[in-house]
Amino acid sequence: MQLIPTFSTLLSSILLAASLPTHIYAAPTTRNAPPHDLTSNTTHLFARVPPQQAPQQPPPAILLPLAIIGLDELYYTQLSIGTNPRPFNLVVDSGSQTFWVNDETQPNLGNKNSIGPHRSTTLRQLQPPRTWSTTYSDGGSVAGTVVFDNVNIRGAAILPNFPFGTGQRLTGLIGTVGEDGMIGFGVGPSPHTGGLTLVEALATAGLIPAAISGWKLPRHADGGQGGELVLGGVNPASFVPPLTTVPADLTAGDYRFRIDNVFVQRRQAIGARTGIIDCGANEITMPVADAAAFHTPITGAIPLSDGNFLIPCNSRAVVIFTIGGKGWPVRTSDLVGDAFTHPQVPPGMCRSLVAAANTQVVLVGSPFLKNVYHVLDRDGRSVSFAALR
């Protein structure tokens, strides 16, 4: 999430369970059904096993369904923690590193799930307690303590004694989110809790083949079905090969890669930039000058005083990101936000989900990521993209 949460636009949580035919091997299941192990799809990872260990078969990758929060605001999956019998609905965020869940002492929990010694008998707390906190750009924050407990990946694997943060105090809009916490899929260790990310910890423990995650984000406009997250590999049934792979800089704790250029209405609007993968952002943010250059070719675009833009709600602008020498089209409707009404603004205008920010990089959020299958490879220090099936 790059500490740039989009909770200000969150709607109520909507779980859109999959209802695909059983012969579709890698399709996500319903909310409480067991996950699929993509055993037959992990053989491509054998090349990482040293020759003397080649006969030892690696563990299978694990597929988890992804569900949508609101209108493609965020995405979440379910895990179990400790002896708490109720699954946790956890936001997945490839732009941050920290795994945290609500603490049972948090005020105003409502119907949200939480963790603590009264909820899980296997929870281990440090003495004296070790505190952690993080602050988001909208002023919201999370603070609590670091604890240890067993994390159950929907019955496919159990990660024992995993360190994570609890949210005892939530301020700002983040406290209004209906989910139970967050899983960071950046690059560990977390600067807040000191723990590895979930996928790194699973790989280190030998529970998945490698610290790789494969992502297919669902889209509300398409019915919200088919979203999935593969821990330890990819699902070839979800994309059209080949994967286009580019190097990633992991030093900042996230996945940074080169964007060759961005074309809008068949004109190059932006040249080479550094992009950051962040499925926890429901916008694509870029430097102020780049945002202006992006919107200039779009017929009817209107600049706002804060550097952002309105675009026609029915815009059909052609937008293509070039990465790894290949063009990746973005569905125009994925760039159209909420309707905007003002006496001085003509009707039929919406907020653009390409936003201006005080930054030198392009934060590549879900408006782009919904259009591709993407892979985060910690071990290979790379990101990959492919067209969706």
Please estimate the helix content: under 10%
User: What portion of the residues fall into strands of 2 or more residues?
Assistant: 35-45%
Strand order of the largest sheet: 1-2-14-13-29-30-15
Radius of gyration: 21 Å
What is the distance, rounded to the nearest whole angstrom, between the alpha carbons of the first and last residues?
Answer: 27 Å
How many runs of DSSP E, i.e. beta strands? 30
Structural class: mainly beta
Number of domains: 2
Helix count, DSSP H or I runs of 4 or more residues: 3
The CATH homologous superfamily of the largest domain is named: Acid Proteases
Shape: globular
At the third CATH level, what is the topology name of the largest domain?
A: Cathepsin D, subunit A, domain 1
Residue-averaged pLDDT: 87
Uncertain runs:
3-51
Secondary structure: elements and pairs:
Layout (H helix, E strand, L loop, with lengths): L35 E2 L24 E4 L1 E3 L4 E8 L6 E6 L6 E3 L21 E2 L5 E5 L5 E12 L5 E10 L1 E3 L9 E4 L13 H7 L7 E5 L11 E4 L7 E9 L8 E4 L1 E4 L2 E4 L2 E5 L6 E4 H8 L6 E2 L5 E4 L6 E5 L2 E5 L5 E4 L9 E4 L1 E4 L4 E3 L1 H4 L3 E5 L4 E7 L1
Parallel strand pairs: 5-12, 6-10, 19-28, 20-27
Antiparallel strand pairs: 1-2, 2-14, 3-4, 4-5, 4-9, 6-12, 7-9, 8-9, 9-10, 9-11, 13-14, 13-29, 15-30, 16-19, 17-18, 17-23, 21-22, 22-26, 23-24, 25-26, 29-30
